[in-house]
UniProtKB/TrEMBL annotation:
InterPro entries reported for this sequence: Mur-like_cat_sf (IPR036565), Mur_ligase_C (IPR004101), Mur_ligase_C_dom_sf (IPR036615), Mur_ligase_cen (IPR013221), MurD (IPR005762)
Cellular localisation: Cytoplasm
Enzyme Commission code: 6.3.2.9
Binding site for ATP: 111-117
Gene responsible for this protein: murD
Domain Mur ligase central: residue ranges: 109-287
Alphabetical list of Gene3D superfamilies matching this protein: Mur ligase, C-terminal domain (3.90.190.20), Mur-like, catalytic domain (3.40.1190.10), NAD(P)-binding Rossmann-like Domain (3.40.50.720)
Protein name: UDP-N-acetylmuramoylalanine--D-glutamate ligase
Length: 445
């Protein structure tokens, strides 16, 4: 047993999970959160006799750490984090800390968009035949699952923030769904810093490991031209034929690994849209690598229910379909949403703009959007970008009002789509809160 001191910055899901695992492994654990720790997490810490503080950081109790686990929400440039590093104390993320305590096969999935759907879908394909947990950015923390459930396999949805603080973390299978400008405020507004951060998912891999990626994504392809990747590469594509990996041929997904080839029709995929064909390719390639039977993969792709707040069909009222895509917190995610609309659409958009460039949406807005409802504190940029493309563009600060306006504007056969292309922190707690308020408002019509 160790007597080392583990200090955890952030008392949320990953912080409390790490505290529990750390205590079980014999660390002297202290949790410190600058904000308020939620009651449900306080209760866990109290019940497990783990020392903590909130609404402050006591430096003397932090700078005596042997190792610090920093919650992904805390940027590296914060003064306290700098002090910790200057004191020569190792700073790690939860996935780094937890991965040292499991022998499981790890599948790590990252990307600007599609990572939650791909991770959830991959877990859905694997759980039919394997003992597998789903963690990372989703559900119960990875650390807590290792402590309580100890699965033989894990699918991890990992963000660039989590990857920023890895040291030895090495997934057996790494997936990058795509890379588009996002979160640039955390990366000195340099896209190349963000790209490098995503690619950390493969940095510790060896030739025994696998890397699955979108070869149609120019950003990924360009990066790979100048950076050597050790692992075995399995690209997927909608437009090119690949020797190993996955591609599309006559509406069929063809997956080749070694001498083994499987084909699957896309006709009955539960998820609609081209981007979901890619997500299905990535997930099926993982399943194929882990020896899931072809029949199981097929059936699972057909009965997968999708992810809450991601192109989620809420209700049909007077022949108008209401769709919750609150998880679309950047322009690229909304691009996929608008691309998959097959009826005139009333689009609810807006929130905290992360330096958005709306140009790529123009063709879809011209073709499919009949009215725009801006739901944000500052909608100037959206108004400016789209006001001459649609007949109706209105502003509101309330979800209930946005939905009532949409109800008035939509005719039978139309869609009402919440796909904000922005972060949610101006009017909502997070994108889940925004999505739930939308669904409640629709149900109350």
């Amino acid at each position: 047993m160790t007597n080392k001191r583990l200090v955890i910055l952030g008392g949320g899901e990953s912080g409390v999970g790490t505290a529990l695992l750390g205590k079980a492994k014999g660390y002297d654990v202290f949790v410190s959160d600058k904000g308020k720790i939620k009651d449900k997490y306080k209760d866990v810490l109290l019940n497990n006799e783990i020392e903590f503080e909130d609404e402050q950081h006591t430096e003397s109790k932090i700078l005596n750490a042997d190792i610090v686990m920093k919650s992904p929400g805390i940027p590296n440039k914060v003064a306290l984090v700098r002090q910790i590093r200057e004191a020569g104390i190792k700073v790690v993320s939860e996935i780094e800390f937890a991965s040292h305590y499991t022998e499981a096969t790890l599948v790590a999935i990252t990307g600007s968009n599609g990572k939650t759907t791909t991770a959830t879908l991959t877990h859905h394909l694997l759980k039919q035949e394997l003992d597998v947990g789903l963690a990372g950015n989703i559900g119960d923390s990875f650390a807590k699952q290792i402590l309580n459930e100890n699965h033989e396999n894990y699918v991890l949805e990992v963000s660039s923030f989590q990857l920023d603080d890895i040291v030895d973390f090495k997934p057996n299978i790494a997936v990058i769904t795509n890379i588009t400008p996002d979160h640039l405020g955390r990366y000195e507004h340099k896209f190349e810093n963000y790209i490098a951060s995503k690619f950390r998912v493969v940095e510790n891999q060896t030739e025994e490991d696998y890397f699955i990626y979108d070869v149609d994504d120019e950003v990924i392809v360009e990066y790979m031209k100048t950076h050597k990747i050790q692992s075995k590469k399995l690209p997927f594509s909608l437009t090119k034929v690949v020797e190993e990996g996955a591609y599309l041929e006559n509406n069929k997904i063809v997956i080749t690994i070694g001498n083994n080839k499987i084909t699957m029709s896309t006709d009955n995929l539960a998820l609609e849209g081209k981007h979901n064909v890619k997500n299905a390719m990535a997930a099926s390639t993982v399943a194929h690598l882990l020896k899931i039977r072809k029949q199981t993969i097929r059936e699972s792709l057909e009965n997968f229910q999708g992810v809450e707040h991601r192109l989620e069909n809420v209700l049909k009222i007077n022949k108008v379909q209401y769709i919750n895509d609150s998880k679309a917190t950047n322009v690229n995610a909304t691009y996929f949403a608008l691309e998959s609309m097959n009826a005139p659409t009333v689009w609810i958009v807006g929130g905290v703009d992360k330096g958005n460039e709306y140009k790529e949406l123009f063709p879809f807005v011209n073709e499919k959007v009949k009215a725009i409802i801006c739901l944000g504190v500052d909608n100037a940029k959206i108004m400016e970008s789209f006001s001459n493309m649609v007949d109706v563009i209105v502003e509101t600060q309330y979800m209930s009002e946005a939905v009532k306006i949409a109800y008035k504007l939509a005719n039978a056969g139309d869609n009402v789509l919440l796909s904000p292309a922005c972060a949610s922190f101006d009017l909502f707690e997070n994108y889940e809160d925004r999505g739930r308020q939308f669904k409640d408002a629709v149900r109350n019509l």
